[in-house]
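Q: Start with the shorter request: fold the first protein.
A: Done. Sequence, then structure:
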Amino acid sequence: MTIEAMLATMPLCTYGQVVIESDDEIAPLNLPRRVQVRRVGVRRSITGDAITGEAVARAADAWLGEWMPGEHETRSSLFAWIGCEGSIAAADAADRLDHSLRAGLAGS
């Protein structure tokens, strides 16, 4: 699923953040009013090779640390989606987010 397709399925009352890992400028996206886009640069190895998913994983972990400890208006509406198919770092971040979201929902 593309980012555009995912955003098209979101209700207008959605709020949150879209993090896109790219060294290029991002074309404008059709977003719900309370959703922001944040671009993070691609991390590089010492040899200059791209380490896909690392920057998205770090951003997801930062979001998790900032937002999950607090209360949310509707905990049942929490949702996370991480693309970067094939990236171990992004898959690990998705697992951490999924675990935290499930734990938060169970505790509400």
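Q: Next, the second protein, separately.
A: Sequence, then structure:
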Amino acid sequence: MNTLGEKIMTARKIKGLSLRELGNKIGMSHSQLSRVERGLNNPSNSLLKKIADELDLDMEELLILCDPNSNNLEYPGKLQRIHYKNTDYVKRRYNILLRDNFTCQACGVTAPSAPLEVSNIIPLSLGGNTTIENSITLCSNCHKGRELQISESGLEDDIFVKRFNIDLSDYRDLK
């Protein structure tokens, strides 16, 4: 795996995105994105810019990481660490994972046996916020299942709303 691919994969996982989710956000197929992460292809400058923006990475630093023989990118070389534009997000996410012992709070699976995501107990779309108190660690399967359950049934029967005794009258647009 090349350095560019490793940096993109690391940043994607820190943000809790699957290949498919990131690909959908930037207009790139997940298989093409996988080839970039595995060092088999370099993205075009326009796709690299979309990746950098979505993952809060510095575009110039990603350009520096690219293969010196690439026709798409101007800056060869290597870089030792990722620099995030939004370090508050990265710190908050890490602190939540640490608080939850890198364990899904629904099923108990731990990293690295399953990808973990940080989810908002009260979704942003329903008036929740991005505080540590409103965040919980879930594996990808539990996160997707919870999203489906909330979209179909609302938050009244959600296990985390019940577990943390959240008063739903404080939030808008709840079913």
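Q: Describe the second briefly.
A: The longest strand covers residues 116-120. The beta strands are 116-120, 135-139.
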